[in-house]
Amino acid sequence: MSGLGISAPRLLLRKLHQVMAGHGDAEQRLNEIVRLIAGNMIAEVCSCYLRRAGDVLELYATEGLKKNSVHKTRLRFGEGLVGDIAAHARPLNLSDAQSHPQFAYRPETGEEEYHSLLGTPILRGGRLIGVLVVQNRTRRTYTEEEVEALQTVAMVVAELVSSEQMVSATEFSDTAGNATLPHHINGRILAEGLGAGTALLHEPRIEVVHAISNNRAKELARLNSAVNSLQSAVEKLLVATNTLFKDESKEIFEAYKMFAHDKGWLKKLQDAVNTGLTAEAAIKRVQDDTRARMKEITDPYLRERLSELDDLANRLYLHLDGRSQIDRRNLEKDTVVVARNMGAAELLDYDRRHLKAVVLVEGTRSSHVAIVARALGVPVVGQCADVLDAVEQGELILVDAEHGQVFLRPGEDVQQAFSRSLRQRAQRQAKYAALRDKPNISKDGVPLSLNVNAGLLIDIDHFPELGADGIGLFRTELQFMVRSQMPKIDEQTQLYSRVLDKMNGKPVIFRTLDIGGDKFLPYLKTKREENPALGWRAIRIGLDRPALLRSQLRALVQAAAGRELSLMFPMIAEVTEFLEAKAILNKEVERASQKKAGPPKKVNVGTMIEVPSIVWQLPHLLKEVDFISVGSNDLMQFFFAVDRGNPKISDRYDTLSPSLLMLLRNIADHCEQAGKPFSICGDIAGRPLEAMALLGLGYRNFSMSSETLGRVKEMALSTNIGKLENFVRGLCQSRDHSVRDQLRAFARDHSIII
Ligand code: PEP
Ligand code: MG
């Protein structure tokens, strides 16, 4: 059986255009459309199913199946192949449909003689409104062109179904009623905080009012002028100085610029217009393709690239007919942005004063948007699977990114409770701000060092507001992660030097690249691993690829010429690894001494304690290092053999388990005996009760995320460490799962604010 020729879609679209403009009621025209499709695609069957209330698909028109099955054959979402296409909103192309496990036989249709099937969802404004199917007797695989042609035709059908209201819109609101009921979605916390505002759909939902063009030249001209306008807008974005975020956003817009000029993408758009589509429909067509590809791809780098292309399609749509881009900077009221996914650059488009939170269908804690949102203090809840279906633009959303919950159309009681939480949070923040200038000393006069973790320049911009002593962990990989290319040595040098300049003599500990595990670099290709957390990551990559480590160390050493440099290595499992890494550093310091700028005034080199094995080599290690810092996030995951990113088990072991406290105490004791400075920079340093226990174990130097500093400071200022030490040391001997309750009781009895 021959496939569909290149000129055929154009022909088909022209005929469809005549039908759409012709006489007859909507059902008659739909019958005519399925007849035309079957004829043009040389298919024996073409059927159109439309969505009815209750997620049911009803056969509305068919060419080839028994006519009396129309309006009788009904399938639920997920039922049969048609239901499967609807449930996943993606095409199916099967040469032997009947052997597919989802196949559901409907005797009234007489479809048993047809073997091959090609079906595609009919979408309107991002919602599924039906399914279009062609079938053939022979076992054949439909070509890619045929799949595309059917998808294009589905857009035309969508236009007919909606404009003629073939299924009344009230049917959905009346029976389902869901749209107006409060709805609550659980997701994952990607950036902590609380936010409330009206919903703004981030993707403009490309609305195709007319899919078929009657003037190809005019549509091409519209498309080309939109492309030109998009290209210059991206150019402007690149030049625009975003004082807050200059460096990070520049890199991201560079990638956009590359795509906006991508010949393959532009040609696809023009081809689609040449088949007879309007410019809007062409953009939608190409975007649907990108989305379909995204569904298939698991490689995080490629997914990130495709989602940039997806965004670019949205931007292009906004440039049609001289409409410029939505001015996201000009939000007028408190807004919660809802998106399938978002690039970091897009987040930066929004006006910070009114952007109160973000809700994503996808997203992980290590995605760019999450990293940047945390730096900006914008709460984000991700992995909210059905939020785009459930939300309507302009309605109220409450985002609780302290518990990973999103409330749509909340009732009065939920709104009141949320307002209370917001007020309490604001009061707490005001209280912490008032503590900012107080010295970091415990109630009984023990000096403490309270530092923050950072990784982007924007973190440093906020540093003076925090009242922290320094940066105890600068995660250098974040700078690498938000870029689309490996930063060159000069760029790295410039960056580190700006960090040191901005910190103006306050201490900063740089950690060398900690990639792998849940942090990936888009441009560093690595093989997929069975257990990435235990795999090729952090210092292991640095030592196996010394050029990478060397270039980073060179940049750090150059940046700190004439100043003090403190750096540490991640994931050191044995002393020899540290020595190997330190040898590379020494060479770079030596090299810098030969250069005009000279070496740093002083170099302090340390290591993170994240792998339990190194704890058993501490006496050796402590002879070699200038300091250590406990990375309790990884240390815990390896100590308990519990994946820190797996919500099913990540809370199984308590951070206040006696065995972990014993391990932390052991580390502290070794460091004290060796007279070496030690600190802790994992998440537990930022939790008041855990930090209190750490004070009891001898820890005096903490580094934590900036938003937790106030709470920890308040606890420390109210703690009498002398009394606490014996108590906590005693608890290490406990055989309980956790000593949390005992610590809480101690805090209560001794008026410690936790
Ligand atoms: C840690 O493992 O505790 C740590 C601070 O490093 P990261 O969270 O960046 O892995
Ligand atoms: Mg770590």
From TrEMBL:
Protein name: phosphoenolpyruvate--protein phosphotransferase
Chain coiled-coil ranges: none
Organism domain of life: Bacteria
Species name: Sneathiella litorea
UniProt keyword terms in alphabetical order: Cytoplasm, Kinase, Magnesium, Metal-binding, Phosphotransferase system, Pyruvate, Sugar transport, Transferase, Transport
Cofactor(s) this protein cannot do without: Mg(2+)
Record field: transmembrane: none
Record has Cytoplasm as a keyword: yes
Primary subcellular site in the record, as a coarse category: cytoplasm
Listed InterPro entries: GAF (IPR003018), GAF-like_dom_sf (IPR029016), PEP-util_enz_mobile_dom (IPR008279), PEP-utilizing_PTS_enzyme (IPR050499), PEP_util_C (IPR000121), Phosphohistidine_dom_sf (IPR036637), PTS_EI-like (IPR006318), PTS_EIN (IPR008731)
GO cellular component, one term: cytoplasm
EC number annotated for this UniProt entry: 2.7.3.9
Enzyme type, top EC level: transferase
UniProt keyword Magnesium, yes or no: yes
Ranges where the GAF domain occurs: 25-171
Similarity-based family: Belongs to the PEP-utilizing enzyme family.
BP-aspect Gene Ontology terms: phosphoenolpyruvate-dependent sugar phosphotransferase system
Subcellular location: Cytoplasm
PANTHER family named among the record's database cross-references: PHOSPHOENOLPYRUVATE-PROTEIN PHOSPHOTRANSFERASE
